[in-house]
Automatic annotation (TrEMBL):
The keyword Transport applies. The keyword Nucleotidyltransferase does not apply. Its cofactor is FAD. Heterodimer of an alpha and a beta subunit. This is Electron transfer flavoprotein subunit alpha/FixB family protein. Keywords: Electron transport, FAD, Flavoprotein, Transport. The electron transfer flavoprotein serves as a specific electron acceptor for other dehydrogenases. It transfers the electrons to the main respiratory chain via ETF-ubiquinone oxidoreductase (ETF dehydrogenase). Pfam families: ETF, ETF_alpha. SUPFAM superfamilies: Adenine nucleotide alpha hydrolases-like, DHS-like NAD/FAD-binding domain. Residues 4-187 form the Electron transfer flavoprotein alpha/beta-subunit N-terminal domain. It comes from the Bacteria. Transmembrane segments: none annotated. Belongs to the ETF alpha-subunit/FixB family.
Length: 316
């Protein structure tokens, strides 16, 4: 069976949920192999094997992790060139996209970013993407080289599929050219206790309708174990940090559930959330454009609706 490479997203060996999603997708396409860069492959091995990785190609070297992404791209391009997998799946985050683009250039391969679904088709691997600020949903197939595919978080529900997870150490020499930009300091973001916005299964977002008081949005989010997002109007007003902005000029999210509270549904906001699996809006204006794309809508004041919803979730 053809090997499908999955670039592991991890923090010191702690494998992120997106990797389990990518391995689940890889298992639909062929035989998943994980690529683990940096320290912690042995700790991660059990998780990777649980979600279907038959092999774990691993390299632990400061040459890979002490610099920006160029060394990782060089490593991956060399491995793809040598082992010729049927595809390489990479998380669709800023680092993942840059790595994928560099690998595609080096291996003369086609690249697809922001896929929300990946399936085996008659003409090869087919991906589904939402493009032009979500105006079109397109199906694409890479026709040149190794398909390099960046997959958005929450594109698949992780499914366990126990496999061997054999760790295969790989030692490649990283060129001096790839080590041009060194990481001199890395500061960990202060933990909010909430999931990362782009990875969360549930996102609750607030807009101008909050009037700057995000407490009902945060309390509802916490009752669901959700991440908190914001519209640009709320961010521009200084009510919430830019890192939480959802939309064309913010982050793109694709959770199982997206709850828009006091958000009108401008096209630029939709561009960041309309691939969410289920969308709920709370808005006091029944004519608000957000109601055009929701699965469930509540016409009402968020300051009355959200506390009731929070109590109901807490009581359940
Ligand atoms: P509004 O449009 O003002 O809507 C507020 C809503 O809250 C209204 O529908 C109102 O009925 C409702 N409301 C008010 N009070 C309550 C209440 N008590 N209870 C319930 N509902 C209430 N926007 C983004 O979000 N993300 C982006 O990335 C982004 N990028 C942009 C890029 C460009 C180039 C441009 C030009 C714009 C961009 N925008 C973006 C801005 C976008 O066009 C909208 O202005 C913005 O999304 C509006 O935010 P909002 O829905 O919170 O505010």
């Amino acid at each position: 069976m053809a090997e499908i490479f999955v670039l592991v997203d991890h923090a010191n060996g702690q494998v992120r949920k997106t990797t389990a999603e990518l391995l689940t997708i890889a298992a639909r396409l062929g035989e998943p192999s994980a690529i683990f860069l940096g320290a912690g492959a042995q700790e991660a091995q059990a998780t990777l094997a649980k979600f279907g990785a038959n092999r774990v190609y691993a390299m632990d070297s400061a040459d890979l992790t002490g610099y920006l992404v160029a060394p990782q791209a060089e490593f991956l391009a060399a491995l793809v060139g040598k082992l010729k997998p049927a595809a390489l799946l990479v998380p669709s985050n800023p680092a993942g996209k840059e790595i994928a683009a560099r690998v595609a250039i080096r291996t003369d391969s086609g690249l697809i970013t922001d896929a929300v679904d990946v399936q085996a088709g008659d003409g090869g691997i087919e991906t589904t993407q939402s493009v032009f600020a979500g105006s079109y949903t397109v199906t694409s197939t890479v026709t040149k080289g190794t398909p390099i595919i960046c997959v958005k978080p929450n594109s698949a529900a992780p499914q366990e599929k126990p496999a061997a997870g054999q760790v295969v150490p790989v030692n490649l020499t990283i060129s001096e050219a790839a080590k041009a930009a060194q990481i001199t300091e890395a500061k960990e973001k202060k933990a909010s206790g909430r999931p990362e916005l782009t990875e969360a299964a549930i996102v609750v977002s607030g807009g101008r309708g909050t009037g700057g008081d995000f407490s009902p949005v945060e309390e509802f989010a916490d009752s669901l174990g959700a991440a908190v997002g914001a519209s640009r109007a709320a961010v521009d007003a200084g009510w919430y940090p830019h890192t939480s902005q959802v939309g064309q000029t913010g982050k793109q999210v694709s959770p199982q559930l997206y709850v828009a509270c006091g958000i009108s549904g401008a096209i630029q906001h939709r561009a960041g959330m309309q691939t969410s699996k289920t969308i709920i809006a709370v808005n006091k204006d029944a004519e608000a454009p957000i109601f055009e794309l929701v699965d469930f809508g509540v016409v009402g004041d968020l300051f009355a609706v959200l506390p009731q919803a929070t109590s109901a979730v807490q009581a359940s």
